[in-house]
Amino acid sequence: MHLLRKTVFALLVFVGFLLTAWATAALYFDLRIASLRVPLAVLYLILVLGAFFLLRRRPIRVLVLFVGFVVVALWWFSLKPSNDRNWQPDNAQTASADIDGDHITIHNFRNCSYVTELDYTCQWETRSFDLANLTGADIFITWWGPTLIAHPITSFDFGLQGHVPISIETRDVVGQSYSAVRGFFRQYELAYIVSDERDVVRLRTNYRKDEEVYIFRTTVKPEFARKIFLDYIERVNQLHSNPEWYNALTNNCTTNIDVSASQARGRSTVWDWRVLLNGKMDEMMYEHGTLVTGGLSLPALKAQAHINAAAKAADDSPDWSQLIRVGRVGFTNQPAPATPAP
Question: Which of 7, 9, 27, 64 is most open to solvent, judged by the fewest CB atoms within 10 Å of its CB?
Fold first, then answer.
């Protein structure tokens, strides 16, 4: 019994220290008054750890760790996201959509023209699409260094009406850039960027350094693609009216794709560790049969799916989306693109 009590105490202390570390980081990152971040984070750490080591009764020492965390967590959960901030130009607007039967009208459809990654001009357009023309969905996956982390972009294929990529990202304010650590706190609002492939994908292939982009055709049938697309559109409209916090663990690019796909299937999400470590997303999709493979092994499929060279060769061609797909598995007989409907 004595050994059991010691084990339980040690476990509670370990969890308490983890919660204390999180609470300290939350104060450091998320206090809205910048000058108070370091002093209050340090003061919190001193008070909590000081009480833990100075108090004699074990239950009280552990209680201090958990009470301190609860106090900080209550404050942290009270922080509200906003659509009214000093956004970077490429995040200046949020998309919304009107649905009239099979006819979808998307407002604030982003179409940026780039000189460099940071030198660009964005147009916010209105484009219309017919669900009857939706033939399937493609997935772009971008790696930029860490092999276990990637960024997926789902692109819906509307045939002659073109492609509609929707990139789930952080919505950055002026001067802000993405940080994996900050992504676990309340630093970024969540954004569903509805855009042109020559914008959101070409940015990654042609202008950003060290980003490698791959395109895969999925096995998603038109009726299933329709359900996923409409779920995306529902989320687009929700965020347009009610902003949410991005979270690198619970509310990010891959978890939202997984939720949309599961809702389209009419069942709850199935746990797979590769949803979190999404640099293995291609492996997960290959194993689940959701990629068109042409009989290739995953390494061979991935090698032929790499589009950076083709994207740079296509440059700013109006046929960019078609050119990056030429000769790749799953993209035979691509139709000639047409000017999107106004």
Answer: 7
